[in-house]
Design goal:
The protein contains four helices and four strands. By secondary structure, the protein is an alpha+beta fold. It folds into two domains: 97 residues, Threonyl-tRNA Synthetase, Chain A, domain 2, CATH 3.30.980; 51 residues, no CATH class. It has a four-stranded antiparallel sheet, covered by helices on one side. Helix 1 crosses helix 2. The longest helix is centred in the last third of the chain and has 31 residues. The chain is globular, with a radius of gyration of 19 Å.
């Protein structure tokens, strides 16, 4: 049982590191550009969906890795992360239910709108905190980029960035 726990913790740690590296890579890849891009992380690396040359992705990922290892923690947190959407949805849902439970639903509707708007404003910094302490990590340890492959699915260009421990 202890082995399973250690293995799961290792997978979560790898996922958080890759998620942080994904954010940093996309941030550097898109600086000064208005391009549509989406990322998705796994314990074994991450995907960048968007029309970029493989060389661009490789350079951005290498720079992101270096800068995170040099201590630029903020690169691991993105205001566009799905974590922020999830935090906003959860908090606004809880607040809406709590406000609606205190009286007649139609009479409470203006209060629900006000409360959920207020919570939505607070959710962005809370989402960033959840990212920083939960869903991403800037502490990359011996993480390295193993390889980058380009692919295309349903007309969408993507790059798979495979990571792993640094090879000696």
């Amino acid at each position: 049982m202890r082995e399973l726990g250690a293995k799961l913790l290792g997978l979560v740690t790898a996922l958080r590191r890759n998620h942080g590296l994904e954010h940093a890579t996309i941030s550097l890849l898109t600086r000064g550009k208005k391009k549509s891009v989406v990322g998705r992380s796994t314990p074994w690396g991450f995907y960048v969906y968007g029309d970029f040359a493989t060389q661009e992705v490789a350079e951005a990922a290498a720079e992101a890795l270096r800068r995170l290892k040099e201590g630029e923690e903020d690169l691991a947190v993105s205001p566009f992360c799905g974590t922020n959407l999830a935090v906003t949805a959860i908090l606004t849902g809880i607040v809406a239910v709590a406000v609606l439970a205190r009286g007649r639903p139609l009479q409470r509707l203006p209060h629900v709108v006000t409360a959920t708007l207020a919570v939505s404003l607070l959710a962005q910094p809370m989402g960033n905190l959840v990212q920083k302490h939960g869903t991403t990590s800037s502490a990359l340890g011996s993480l390295s980029i193993r390889r980058i492959e380009q692919g295309r699915r349903a007309g969408v260009v993507y790059h798979r960035v495979e990571t792993g421990p640094a090879l000696s």
